[in-house]
Queue: 2 jobs
Job 1
Amino acid sequence: MHFERTQYEYMKIIGLTGGIGSGKTTIANLFEFLNIPVYYSDVRTRFLMENDPIIINSMKEHFGNQVYSDTGILNRNFLGEIIFKFDAERAWINAIVHPAVGIDFSHWILNQQSKFVLKESALLIETLSIQPVDKIILVIASLPIRIQRVSKRDQLSEAEVKRRIRIQISDEERIKFANYIITNDGNNSIIQQTLKLYKTILSDLTND
Ligand code: ATP
């Protein structure tokens, strides 16, 4: 019997990850200029946490109504405090949210037309076993630069940013999984690197 392969099966998924403040989102935005569809996992996660009734109910039952504002907006400060302080609570949220994001991604990719798509995720490597990708781009930047960027962007103390960075896996660990690396220390052209990488990925996918 002959089965048609769906477009989804052909579409290559390139994961894009990096530590907090490395510049994942900035690089993902550049790929969008090249017409590459990007799935922003962290943005979609937040969307699902505010719109999926099953997740909303579970969250309220677990953390109390204070986890959302009166208008249904996620209380990110409250959640950030919990997620970055208590391993068990972080694991609980991940167990609820990651499967939903996996399903959301599989719906999203069905509507894309491209040689490849990018999946931007802070936890790409941590969730690889349940949400596999074809190749991985890692964005790296030095620790002092990341700390400076995030404390400025999110109005957090340096100590708090360092604490959040320590919870994630290290770049040494991430590098073991990476197929491609972009360095975003501020003094290297990310536009040039992204363009070069775009061409390399297209060529690698043709040769695979
Ligand atoms: P997070 O995981 O915390 O969401 P991220 O890895 O997605 O972070 P970005 O949001 O892309 O990182 O970048 C963090 C901050 O640093 C942003 O405010 C961004 O504008 C800034 N930034 C990123 N790359 C550069 C750069 N090359 N030059 C100057 N600022 C940059």
Job 2
Amino acid sequence: MKPIVAIIGRPNVGKSTLFNRIVISRKAIVEREAGVTRDRIYADAEWSGRQFIIVDTGGLGSESDEFGPLIEEQAKAAVQEADTILMLVDARVGVLPDDLEVADLLRRAGKPVIVAANKAETERLRQSSQEFFSLGLGEPWPVSAAHGMGVGDLLDAVVDLLPPPSPDGDEAPSQRPPTFAVIGRPTVGKSSLV
Ligand code: GDP
Ligand code: MG
């Protein structure tokens, strides 16, 4: 069994955008049990040699702006099945009562949680995202899912919180490390760069 990382948070904070940035392949998305997973999508992900399942709790459809029982249900279900939880908030909006409600639920769940403040594309936003410390879930990680900023550091932290790899080989690291090709016209400096 690969560990499961669930992205949860209010509508429109950028959960699906972050999910799409993290997944290896959209093709890997699996509907597990019909009905139960209608509001969640799953995909394979890998970072630093650790393989895991990433879950977008927002579902496939467009989310309404209304917070309420639906989000709470999703958060609860995500907490139940996830090994590690990635709580996403909106750095541009700041702390909202709904964020506090989600954080409360997560704190009581006793599972590892990482808070990421999305849409933090400017230095000012990266600094103000520290206000999410008040959620009581540790240091907030400023990211921009849309632009990929901070996502690598965030994934380093997520992978650190995963349970140790299972010995059944299900999670064996890829056979070879990633390879990169440097291409370009002659004498542009390819060899020097390598
Ligand atoms: P979800 O409802 O939490 O799944 O949020 P979405 O991923 O659908 O994103 C909601 C809106 O926020 C969309 O208009 C996105 O384009 C926008 N968005 C997502 N990530 C970022 C980001 O990193 N920066 C900015 N500026 N906008 C973002
Ligand atoms: Mg979504």
